Amino acid sequence: MSATTPDAAFHSSATRPGPIGLITEGILDIWSRRRLIRYLVRADLKKRGTDTLFGNVWWVIDPLLLMIVYVVMVTVIVQKTDPDYPLFIFCAILPWKWFTASVTDSIGSVSGQERLIKQLHFPKVVFPVASTVSEIAGFLFGLIPLFTLMLLFYRDRFSPWILLIPAVAFVQFFFTLAISFLFSAVNVFYRDVANVSRHFLRLWFYLSPGLYSLKQVDKIAAQNPIVGQLMALNPFATFFESYRNVIYNGTGPLWGHLAGWLLASLAIGALTLLFFKRTEPSFAKVL
């Protein structure tokens, strides 16, 4: 593409398309730059593997260490657990770690590329997409300790339903991508997003049925309907319970709820992509 034929993403504000046009443009940006996204993902994975002593092994060790911390906290301090609690909690830790890592990386994905953004004209949406996609590797590596735990200690929990983990992960990916669009754009203008997000995500996890079952939430909701309403709006109530069903309970995921959250994630993703595309022309000026 020559210098005299600028990308459609960089037309003047007077000729910029409307909301539907911007959303379509954003989707086309992602598709047309898929090779660039693959390159960014490979570069990110390679960098992580060489920046630490144990490299990619940390993707296996980290969720296990996190599981041990929560198991000790709940079983020793709170002294209240569900049967086979390490596996019970690992079903939530693995997808939650994937989500938080994706969001955390995406927050600085645009603002961290200041020099590149000021020098070259290209769709900036590739950065949060690449950050979110690269964290899929961490989730896949996390399946290694999951299956190891089941083989060594919880063989009776194995069932054909476990093959549906990708179906739940598919919905979670689109929800995560929607959040990544929003946070990566907002952080360009307000750099405190990274600091606030750590506390926000921690609170979000404790308000999700990660350390406790959805049945316990139902008991609380019976006494406090507001809690039940808030939980109904929490996608990780559906995600955690669906992962637990296919891994821990040996049953099918919450198909109806997953379908609802897939549609909601696509709608939220369209809105956050629209916000990203509307603010994109200002990135170079602000950075």
Summarize the structure.
The chain has 287 residues and is an all-alpha fold. The protein has helices at residues 19-32, 34-51, 58-78, 85-107, 114-119, 126-152, 165-189, 193-206, 214-223, 225-232, 235-249, 255-279, 283-286.
If you had to describe this structure to a student in words, what would you say it looks like?
The protein is an all-alpha fold. The chain has helices at 19-32, 34-51, 58-78, 85-107, 114-119, 126-152, 165-189, 193-206, 214-223, 225-232, 235-249, 255-279, 283-286. Helix 4 (85-107) runs parallel beside helix 7 and helix 4 packs antiparallel against helix 8. The two termini are 25 Å apart.
Question: Tags for this entry?
Answer:
disordered N terminus, 13 helices, 287 residues, mainly alpha
Work out the helicity level: over 70%
Number of distinct beta strands: 0
- pLDDT averaged residue by residue: 86
Query: What radius of gyration results from the CA coordinates?
Result: 21 Å
Given helix and strand content, the structural type is: mainly alpha
Sheet of most strands: none
Run of helices and strands: HHHHHHHHHHHHH
Query: Shape from CA axes?
Result: globular
The DSSP helix count reads: 13
